[in-house]
Amino acid sequence: MTRRRIAVIGIGKIAQDQHLPVIDKGSDFELAATVSTRGLAYGKIPAFRSPADLYQALPEIGIVAICTPPGVRHRLVREALDAGKDVLMEKPPTTTISEFDDLVVHARARKRVLFQTWHSRYNDAVARAKAILKREGVASLRIDWRESVRKWHPGQDWVWEPGGFGVFDPGINALSIFTEILPFQAFVESARIAFPSNRQAPVDAELTFRTAGAGGPKMSAGFNWLEESGEIWTIAIETAKGTRLKLEKGGTVLTVNGLLTVEAPSEEYERIYEHFARLLDKRRSETDGSPLRLAADAFLLGARENAAPFEW
Ligand code: NAP
């Protein structure tokens, strides 16, 4: 089968770490162009300074992956849909719920495929945990999501700007697993959010969740962005039948009652592009705003605390 021609827009860390090499080595897509406002290029692939330049020069490229920060994504996705492109979006999809809802409606109106990704969901351990919770229910759940902003977002000032999400940029990955595996809807019950005194986005957050009815499971999450000992990306769950599950390493490892049950290398982006190819075959969009809604609810409900100033 011929590979579909795709362009990547925004050649930052995640495009260089994942999108470009994964597209290159996969069999579903052919990297046909890049767009970089800084003028970066990828080998000999045609490079453009703006999406408009790309769309004018190579109108036959019908698919784009948008890998910029979320603040500019609504405008870029709309522009791509209006140019007749099918679109893959990085997470978090947008900075506001209104923008997110608009893109879902707009893709439908334009009859384009919109694939709004949550990369942490593309792990076997996540699917296995989901199946167990569906059978056994949830008695308690605790998320601990701690990493180093200096390692994962080196020098990226946008993460500290209004709309940059701060520690919710990684925290929303945990929320994307949480909303995927839970067999019921969760609501933010309380949030405590700590902002460095010289920044506009949080460095630490502690959330509790509730269910619609009374007497639901105890569920909470802690996010921190100053963890220098390595990543702690863990979700510990006790099911209503007493089984203890632990999703670790960002959802790539699952232990059940202390026994290693699933352990697979992270191939999230390989799976994302395979799935995108299937969605394109079926001309079907896939979008899910639930992690973004929980993050937004935490900001709405959150009690603010001041934390020490942050410098790179
Ligand atoms: P980044 O390194 O800062 O790259 C973003 C790129 O987008 C920039 O290098 C720039 O590329 C382009 N861009 C266009 N408009 C921009 C603007 N107004 N401000 C800043 N950059 C702009 O960020 P990233 O780490 O790749 O993150 C991008 C998205 O991927 C985020 O939504 C993030 O949550 C998600 N993500 C990141 C990681 C990670 O490990 N960092 C992992 C998974 C997902 P050009 O100069 O080429 O135009």
The ordered string of helix (H) and strand (E) elements is EHEEHEHEHEHEHHEEEEEEEHHE
Bound molecules: NADP nicotinamide-adenine-dinucleotide phosphate
Helical run tally? 9
Q: For the record, what is the CATH homologous superfamily label of the largest domain?
A: Dihydrodipicolinate Reductase, domain 2
Q: Give me the secondary-structure category.
A: alpha/beta
* Whole-number mean pLDDT: 97
Q: Helical amount among residues, as a percent range?
A: 25-40%
Structural domain tally: 2
* CATH class value of the largest domain: Alpha Beta
Short summary:
By secondary structure, this protein is α/β, with parallel strands linked by helices.
Descriptive account of the structure:
With about 300 residues, the chain is α/β, with parallel strands linked by helices. It has two domains: about 5-115, Rossmann fold (3-Layer(aba) Sandwich), CATH 3.40.50; about 125-265 and about 295-305, Dihydrodipicolinate Reductase, domain 2 (2-Layer Sandwich), CATH 3.30.360.10. Helices cover about 35% and strands about 25% of the residues. The protein is built from nine helices and 15 strands. β11 and β12 (about 245-250) form a beta hairpin. The protein is globular and about 60 Å long. It binds NADP nicotinamide-adenine-dinucleotide phosphate. NADP nicotinamide-adenine-dinucleotide phosphate binds near residues 67, 70, 71, 156 and 158.
